[in-house]
Design brief:
The protein is of the alpha+beta class. The strands form two sheets. It has a three-stranded mixed beta sheet, with no helix packed on it. It is globular and about 50 Å long. The chain is about 40% helix and about 15% strand. Helix 1 crosses helix 2. It has five helices and five strands. The structure holds zinc ion (2 copies). The site of one zinc ion (ZN) has 7 residues, from loops.
Length: about 150
């Protein structure tokens, strides 16, 4: 299959939760109750969420105070295990729509409402990697984010 024809299912709800769990466990980490709470909170946001947003959501859901610091550590694990992505220009995190598939994602971030749409286009992202390599640079993690206005705000 050609790179640009890459397609995969994007699981939702319980399916997304179990796909996230599988990916985290494959990375050698335990899926604990706290990690599940953080993932549920993260997946419940329709725009990128900061560790503070997630700590607040988990604190409300569990009726106990959860520190943003512990959420940060879990988010780092999630990013390393491909369970979450960091949206750099929003300084926030988003649940990975395809935790079982590792590739570079493109994010379209609305400047007005913050809604972030995820696009996969492997021919563009591999072009960025190749251009970096051609310049003698080893790309570890291309960050491709497009700021602008979403269809609702336009
Ligand atoms: Zn993607
Ligand atoms: Zn918008």
């Amino acid at each position: 299959m050609a790179a640009h024809a890459h397609h995969h299912d994007e699981p939702h709800g319980a399916d997304l939760l179990s796909a996230a769990r599988t990916s985290l466990e494959k990375s050698g980490e335990q899926w604990t109750a706290m990690r599940e709470s953080v993932f549920r909170a993260l997946a419940g946001f329709d725009k990128p969420a900061s560790a503070y947003d997630i700590a607040d959501a988990v604190s409300k859901a569990e009726d106990r105070r959860v520190a943003a610091n512990s959420v940060y550590r879990i988010l780092d694990l999630f990013v390393a295990a491909n369970v979450a992505s960091r949206v750099e220009s929003a300084n926030a995190y988003i649940a990975n729509a395809h935790p079982d598939c590792l590739h570079d994602c493109i994010f379209l971030v609305c400047d007005t409402c913050g809604q972030t749409v995820h696009l996969d286009n492997d021919s563009i992202t591999s072009g960025v990697r190749h251009a970096a390599e051609a310049a003698g640079f080893t790309p570890e993690r291309p960050v491709i984010e497009v700021r602008g206005k979403c269809a609702d705000c336009d």
